[in-house]
Design goal:
heterodimer; A: alpha/beta; D-Maltodextrin-Binding Protein, domain 2; 13 helices; 46% helix; B: two-stranded parallel ribbon; 73% helix
Amino acid sequence: MTIRISRRGATAAMAIVSALAFSAPFAASRSPALAGEEVNIYSAREPELIKPVLDAFTAETGITANVVFLNKGLAERIAAEGRNSPADVILTVDIGRLDEVHSAGVTQPVSDPQIDADIPAQYREPGGNWFALTTRARVVYASRERVAQDAITYEELADPKWKGRICTRSGQHVYSIGLFASMLAHHGAEATETWLAGVRDNLVRKPDGNDRGQAKGIYSGECDIALGNTYYVGQMMTNDKEPEQKEWAAAIKVLFPNTADRGTHVNVSGMAMAANAPHRDNALTLMRFLASDEAQRIYAEQVYEYPVKPGVPPSELVASWGTLHADTLPLADIARNRKAASELVDKVGFDSGPAS
Amino acid sequence: MTASIRMLLGRRPGLALAAAAAIALAGLPIAAILVIAARGSADGTLTHLAQTVLPGATATTALLMLGVGAGTAATGVSAAWLVSAYRFPGRRLLEVALVLPLAMPLYITAFAYIELLDFTGPLQRLIRHVGGYTSVRQYWSPDIKTLPGAVFIMSSALYPYVYLTARIVFQMQSAAAMNVARTLGRGAFGAFWHVALPLARPAIVAGVTLAMMECLNDIGAVELLGVKTLTFAVFDTWLNRGSLSGAAQIATVMLAVVVGLVVAERLARRRRRFDVSARTIEPPRPMRLRGWHAGSAILACAAPVVAGFALPAMLLVDYASRRLGMLASPALQSALVNSLSIATATAIAAILAALLIAYAGRLSASPATALLGRIAVLGYAVPGTVLGIGVLIPLAAFDNWFDGQMRSMFGIATGLLLTGSGAAIVYGCTVRFLAVSFGTIEAGLGKISEHMDMAARTLGRTMGQTLADVHMPLMRKCIATAGLLVFVDTLKELSATILLRPFNFETLATLVYSTTARGAYEDAALPALAIVAAGIVPVVLLIASADSADLVRATPETVEGDALRA
């Protein structure tokens, strides 16, 4: 009998605890779609990086921006949510991801004279299914001490003179895939495979870490040159919380590859309107704002990316590394070659490190 | 099969139906992944993979699993045995501390080791200082970004799974069996090796299985360590080649291998029983250690705590101390509340589901029921994001269907009822960590003699009453352990939470992730410490408050003594 009573007591206690535990997440999730002036953003960009721009947007328009950050499965989620999806605007990085949301059918075309005037044609999908907002160059970080030359080409990275001197992150990372896809578009499969195998054999170690880690590799003397995105250099140089990173950045110089010929490979971050956007007008207001001078300047000054809008200059810090002469290869060509590039990385065993 | 269904349905179908519902709900996301895999076209994805990465990735994964399996088993079992069978100074403290690595997210441990052993870390600083070097090329230092490094890190972080399950069983074991062994001339080690260890096998296997499944589902730590497991192939195929079905196919093959391993282990111990059914259970009497024996025991128990907890925690504290201002941020506080709510709800759901499924397996003699239940709890062997997709697709489909029905019948739009709320996260995490609660609860259930069931049934209890009145009180400690493990795992869970959470809903883990995603690991230190702190409280409470004698006192005499047939 005593067992029975205690069991009831336990059940009651459990019910109370569960009710409390379940109610919190439900309460927190009161659908933002029901409230007033709001816009819902599905973002593959890190919240910290877009916060300054969104704060400025809210200050100017009074529209609250709700953000959910997810960098894997974004297209799958919107597709699964279907017509009930709360997503208004999609923010993402990499041409591959923009192309993916478009081909997954979770975007809708936007035709707006103001946005079209702000963003050059080469940086938007012809149907208006996505727009690039910033560009970032995939550059070479070179040791100030141990590398004398001030110009370089991507092709040259396969030159045996760099043997045991190159560091990079995984060949399967989107940034690497974008670069390799551009090489495929320029040189074809056979030449790119030879090139990639050459770069692999010049590596110090198997690819690992992130772009900052490669700069650290140069600082430590492990390697002499590395591949990395431009904005990380700006972020390291201004990192007051971990001042040590300023030293890493000080150990490197930024070389813009292929400046003398076809130009440096650039990738983009961008935006798209979700197919079933419940706040279409607010979404359009946000997209116009993101393409405007004000937002473009914030991107340039605080995130160290290159604005796509002509006439908005990069930050002084970024400009101090030299002038970016960007490869004019259409972004669509890069997107098309991504799958082949990813397979090539596997084929040459790029991520296993030097074979010889 | 029909006999078992009849037996299950019997006169009281409630329990059977509940168990069937639990299996169906747990299996749904896995079924969704299988459907995605089956939908794949023959676009050569698998052929390409088979020719390039799969052989190497399979070997790496197998070696990692073997290494981590051996590492966690050796560490977890020896620590559990030392704190259970011996008394030495500091034993109580170490007994609790040995669980602490559980509170540390695996990718944080990996990150901490990389930092500590890196060029700018303390070890290399010291080497440079002593040797007067300036460049990393002038000296040797250990490289943690290797397969052996990954085995070390993952073993240090995951051994508590084995320690916890093994410790309970060692403390539940009757001293009588050990005494018999000693009387028959075995030494202390012989009695451990030939009696205690074999009797604890199901519990140890349950713990080791969890650690090994973690090798399959982890992407965070292996990515940092550059160890190319099969999970890499899953993500590359999905994200870089746009083939979700190809990714699901690889995940399915991984799942099949896990099912094969689990079934093989079950077959190997078929017809053996591990229950305790002595007429009275004499609590094990720990032996006092002195001198260098006590010293080595302290060392053996302290080393895993230092490796799996103290070192990474030190680094976090160092980073966090420069960012204490974040403590006041409302974002951190609401994330803490969200994390605790989700983890509590998930722990309760995972306990209930595991009890039902394990109990159905106990009642039904049919291997088919057992296998179904077993497959249903395999969510842990799937990479979290892929499992998240498996949760998302059926749930969102239900939401849209329900919304359509409500609109057409009542003109009410319900929108995304489940996927738009925290419910989807709780469901996803429950499915993901069901293996954790199931393994612990099943091992505990196996310790209770079936004669107890028979007695209860003879005395007029239904199966449901038997579970509630007899088994659950006997398994209090098991259930608490299972709940705790799921609670802590859910606190750390990331991949599924990221995919399934609604707007403006951050947990501690997603806060950590959103900063690490931009490469600023330092900024993640404070929320990471908050995860650790939130996980430590229940861990310490559980171990410190549960007197091992509890269980023994709670064990009533069985109807009939039964010789141990191990």
